[in-house]
Amino acid sequence: MNEKKIPHKKFFCIEFPGYVKDTEKALKMLGGISRIKKYAIEGNSTDSFTIKIIPNATPLFGERLTSNNLFLKVSKQKISQSFSFEPEIIGSIPESVYFKGMFDFQFIQPEFFKKDQILKKFNENSENLFLQPKRIDSHDIPVDYAFKENPFFQFFKNQDGEFELKSKKTKKVTQILFKEPIPPILPFDPKNDIEKKIHNLFERRPVWSRRALELILKKPITNFKNTLELCAFNYKTGPWRSLWVRRGVNLLENKSNAIYQSLDFRISRISSKENTNNKQTQPIRFQKRKEIDKNQNEVIYDFDIAKLLKLPKKRQFIYQICDVIEGVKSIREFYQKIVLNENCEEKSGFLKANDILKIKKLMREQVEKLQKNQNQNQIENQNQNQNQNENENQIEIEIENENQIEIENENQNEIENQNQNQIEIENQNQNQIENQNQNQNQNQIQNENENQIENQNQNQIEIENQNQIQNKKNQTLSQIENEIEIEMEEENKVKESKEEQIRTQNLNFDSQNISESNSNSNSISDSNSNSISNSNSESESDSN
């Protein structure tokens, strides 16, 4: 498979929310190339890119997001009826602008007839009462509502077989405003443990806060809310705001009920009193909701929080005067000196506003003491933890030192062993080298001897070859001499035979013509001389 490298060139992409037929018009809607360049170079990832289809319309917002797209260039070549495509990667697109939303509804002013144009002249100075909203639709992205059937309504068939709607009565917590008539007493027969505990609590005390009930019952109010509304009601306003009152009890009739009034106490910051010159404030260290949820059974359900003997876990906490008096001595002593009013006011109840402020001031002092103690405890715990950590660190350091010493000793032993092994290896190598040298010398001597023997053998072979060649030469010479002698003998025999023939011829010629013999004898003698010379020459050539 052919792998192609991606070029380092980078591009910026804008996904246009529509089909582009006219490129210049699309660029004009986007604000031009200069605006696109400026947004691509200088724009942040949080900046949105807007586009307007109509000049006065609500713009469509584009979101700048990271992408891993590639910019391809595809070349198409047409050869007869077959098509061939050649893709080429030009670069990468690390960022893109996406228009995920939908266009808002657009208001287009109607124009009907020319008469309306005439009316505009009369209405030029009139006030324009139609103000176009900035946005008509509140959502630009489709939302899945997941419609479900209303659980408080149900359909049933009547006698005629038609469907009728029947609503269910919803159980709501009974809440009243200040000085409204109290709700009636409902029949309540406690059966399980929680119902019995709630009944006993309201028999012992007519008014309870939601937080106090949760702290005593050690359960959230959602687990016993239905039971609670059967035996109590809730004030929405007034001095007993957000408190649960036993049904049938009218707190406005007796000023002794002032002890059950609520105190909405909010903690923002606590000033440090150890150093009066220090104007900085120390925030209450509140526990995070996740930590509370994890340790819910251990953290939330502690009634000392309602008595202000422990710091609350939230910045806002609704206390009751009776609980705070029981927990804080200074507030109890101050409350014994308070003169209650005869009439109950909506804000302060049977107490005076200054008395409530004084109680809250004492509560803040108590919170500061708790914060100081908590800080001291935290410092002590930190010191203990620090000392413990230091001791642990010291022990760890000693252990590490011992381990380090052991490691160093082990390393030293390993180094010594390595040195010894190295020396042994070097000695072995030296012995091996010496043995190799000896073997090489022996091999060299053996090779030299073998070479000498080979040279001797070669010399001997050469001598033998030379002797053989010489013998062959001698044999050939002897053969040649024998052949020459044989040829000479044959030639001599030929000569003798010729001479005899000539003699016989001469004798015959002498008898026939004496006269001619003389002349012929001369010619014969000449021819004989020539033949003799030729024979001599042939014999000389043969001898050679």
Automatic annotation (TrEMBL):
Domain Transcription factor IIIC subunit Tfc1/Sfc1 triple barrel: 13-107
Residue ranges of the region described as Disordered: 490-544
One Gene Ontology term from the biological process aspect of the record: transcription initiation at RNA polymerase III promoter
SUPFAM superfamilies reported for this sequence: Winged helix' DNA-binding domain
Compartments it resides in: Nucleus
Residue stretches of biased makeup (Low complexity): 510-538
Molecular function terms, GO-annotated: RNA polymerase III type 1 promoter sequence-specific DNA binding; RNA polymerase III type 2 promoter sequence-specific DNA binding
GO CC list: nucleus; transcription factor TFIIIC complex
Transmembrane regions listed in the UniProt entry: none
Main location: nucleus
Annotated Transcription factor IIIC subunit 5 HTH domain residues: 131-266
Keyword annotations: DNA-binding, Nucleus, Transcription
Listed Basic and acidic residues bias regions: 491-502
Pfam families noted in UniProt: Tau95, Tau95_N
InterPro entries: TF_IIIC_su-5_HTH, TF_IIIC_Tfc1/Sfc1, Tfc1/Sfc1_N, TFIIIC_tauA_Sfc1, WH_DNA-bd_sf
Protein name: General transcription factor 3c polypeptide 5
Natural source organism: Anaeramoeba ignava (Anaerobic marine amoeba)
